[in-house]
Every structure is written in C-alpha cells, then in structure tokens.
Amino acid sequence: MNIGRLVRQAQNGNKEALLQLIIADQDAYYRLAYTYMGNEHDAMDAMEDMIVTLYEKIDQLQKSEAFYSWSKTILVNRCKTLLRKQERFLPLEDEREQSLAALTEDNPYRYSESEMDMQVLLSHLNSRQREAIELRYVHDLPYQAIAEMTGAPIGTIKSRISQGLQKLKAMIGGDRYENDRGEIKGTQTNLEYGTGSVRT
User: Fold this and answer.
1) Any long-range contacts for 20-23 (C-beta under 8 Å, 24+ apart)?
2) How far is CA 33 from CA 23, 75, 124, 196, in A?
C-alpha cells in the first residue's frame, strides 16, 4: 500500500482513498480506542468521530508518512473529549474488569491471556503512567506521537514510562504477602487474580 499516494488522493477529495488508509489499520485504531473507552460501543463512537474529523482535516496534514500517528492523535483526543462528556477520564476499575470480561471468543479484538495479565498489572499504575506505557508498548507508538497525543513533553512521557516500569518490575519480582484486607504489599513473584489491589 502506497500511503503517500493514498494520502494525496484523500487530500484531493477521494473518500475511498481515506477509507483504505483507515481500514488498513482498523484493528490498531479499535484497540487504541478501547484502551481509553473501556467498551466496544464507546470505542466505535470514538472511531466514527475520528473518521469525520479526518475527512474534514486531511488537507491539513503536511507529511503523508505521518498519517497514522496524526490520525491516532486525533482518535485519542476524540476519546478524551467523549470521556470528559461522560465525566470520566479512564474507566473505573470495576468497569475495566467488566470490559475485559466482555472480550470473549465472539469478539475478534479480544485480549489474549498474556494481554489480560498485562492489563491487570497496568491497572496498578496511576492513570498517566498506565496511559504512557500502553501507548508505547501495547500500541507501539513512538515517544513523539505519545507526547502529541497526551500534550506532555517527551521528557515527561519518558519519566512516566520509566517510573511505571519500575513499579511493574517491583510487582513481578521478589516476595509477596498480603495484609488482613487482602492488599498486596511489597513485591511478588507472580501477579495473581484476586481481591487484592495496589494503589499508587
């Protein structure tokens, strides 16, 4: 697929060319939207909003090779706008658990077991650390794109990722014990599903 040619065609009003660009990476768009919205319906709404925005603003894109990072930045912004309208930034923990449970065999975008394990680990980070790590390692986005999506300097993004990774390393290594409320204290060898939680 010639991205540059399709972008130029889209900028000249060819809606089919823009559709081809979107379809080529539709799974990545969906998973990115799902990360923020926490359920299929809202993720699809965010994607629809993104497509409308792309149609309206494609002529503003100066570098055709930047189409995917640019369009994903628009998608993240649409997600955050929708979440603000819903008066929430990220799914609450119980909503996130329900959304993970909803990714069944019937859903082609479901998480694999290892991805679900990672989601459990990430749920113990603060929202900004989790967002930065998911964008970098789950969605494989470059630091510059993450900075544009979140409105934070690259140095801040790298710091959030570094601090988040340190917390994750602490959770998957060392000894594990729980207090009488079931909260995990210290570090642990394997993160287990249960009622315990770590809040930072």
Assistant:
1) 21/67, 21/71, 22/51, 22/54, 22/71
2) 15, 7, 20, 28
Residue type, 175: D
Residue showing tokens 């299929």: 40
How far, rounded to the nearest angstrom, does the alpha carbon of residue 51 sit from its chain's CA centroid?
Answer: 18
Whole-prediction pTM: 0.64
In the numeric block, which tokens belong to residue 107?
Answer: 């859903």
160-169 LR contacts (CB < 8 Å, sep 24+): 160/128, 160/129, 160/131, 160/132, 160/133, 161/129, 161/132, 161/133, 161/136, 163/129, 164/125, 164/129, 164/130, 164/132, 164/133, 165/133, 167/124, 167/125, 167/129, 167/200, 168/121, 168/122, 168/125, 168/133
pLDDT in tens, 29-84: 999 999 899 889 999 999 999 999 999 999 999 999 999 999 999 999 999 999 88
